[in-house]
Amino acid sequence: MVAAVRTVLGDIAPGELGVCDAHDHLFLRSPMLPGQELDDRESAAERLRAFRALGGRAVVQWTPHGMGRGADALAELSRTTGAHVVAATGLHQAAHYPPELLDRIRDDLAALFVAELTEGIGTTGVRAGLIKVAGAFHTLDAHARLTMTAAAGAHHRTGAPIAVHLELGTAALDVLELLCGELGVPPHRVILGHLGRSPDGAVQREAARAGAFLAFDGPSRANHATDWRLPEELAELAGAGFTGQLLLGGDTTVPETPGMPHLLRRLRPRLEGVLGAEVMETVLVANPARAFAFEAPGA
């Protein structure tokens, strides 16, 4: 199997991905965010067009199964805007789902994830390109262990990358101990999200030394207290030799999030002033091409 990134329009060579928003949402619905749904197709198209106008080429949507990921709209949005879009399978924390949904699917999660990666999401024909799971605050609860075990099983069968929501940026090392230590997922197949929400440099460096990709995503109202630390965090990691493992995303979770355009219009030039254009090219282009590529199972 030749390495490829699985977009909603089909597999592409990793080098075709281009400037990538490595963690975002075009569509999202959760009982934890009542009245703040991302469910408008034209709004999603406007954000994609604005991102493309600023030089963006690809968006990786981390919205997993059962959270209104808009699979029936993603292919058309990709075609009409010219942006590559990667969709997700997987499950978020239990609080984001009605109990009856979890009761219906929990016994065969790995098979569900594999089906959405290889056959398609529902009847849309759109195949997922990554597996999204989530930890708990400073720990891994039973639901996290269940979903991560299923994600590892699906990874071993498909070679798909695994993206992890770290609750408030915590439990990164617990995640790696489970996924990579106990379940045998290669560390470079794991993408740790939200690390900037708990700006602990020692933990970030240890996760980087383990070999995982580190995703820094935002800004948003919820994380404004730590977002401003981003330039110094990335500078420290790059200076320690981990440039090749850094990713950036907008993480649009509610309509008011600055999101995709902000990533390139405001954040990129600020970071280029600190890190240099060459490092930012690596972070926005080369690293996503490796992080989101499928590998032959067992590679």
In short:
This protein has helices spanning 41-53, 71-81, 99-105, 109-118, 142-158, 172-182, 201-210, 224-227, 230-239, 259-275, 277-291, and strands spanning 4-7, 10-12, 20-24, 58-61, 84-86, 88-90, 130-134, 162-165, 190-193, 213-217, 246-249, 293-294. It has 299 residues and is an alpha/beta fold.
Description:
It holds the Pfam family PTE. There is one protein chain. With 299 residues, the chain is α/β, with parallel strands linked by helices. The protein has a single domain (24-294), classed as Alpha-Beta Barrel (TIM Barrel). The protein contains eleven helices and twelve strands. The strands form three sheets. Strands 6-7-8-9-10-11 form a six-stranded parallel sheet. The termini are close together.
Helix-strand layout with pairing:
Layout: E1 4-7, E2 10-12, E3 20-24, H1 41-53, E4 58-61, H2 71-81, E5 84-86, E6 88-90, H3 99-105, H4 109-118, E7 130-134, H5 142-158, E8 162-165, H6 172-182, E9 190-193, H7 201-210, E10 213-217, H8 224-227, H9 230-239, E11 246-249, H10 259-275, H11 277-291, E12 293-294
Parallel strand pairs: 3-4, 4-5, 6-7, 7-8, 8-9, 9-10, 10-11
Antiparallel strand pairs: 1-2, 1-12
Please give the radius of gyration in angstroms. Answer: 17 Å
Distance between the termini: 10 Å
Classified in CATH, the superfamily is Metal-dependent hydrolases
Series of H and E elements = EEEHEHEEHHEHEHEHEHHEHHE
InterPro entries: Metal_Hydrolase, Phosphotriesterase
Keywords: Hydrolase, Metal-binding
Protein name: Phosphotriesterase
Modified residues (N6-carboxylysine): 132
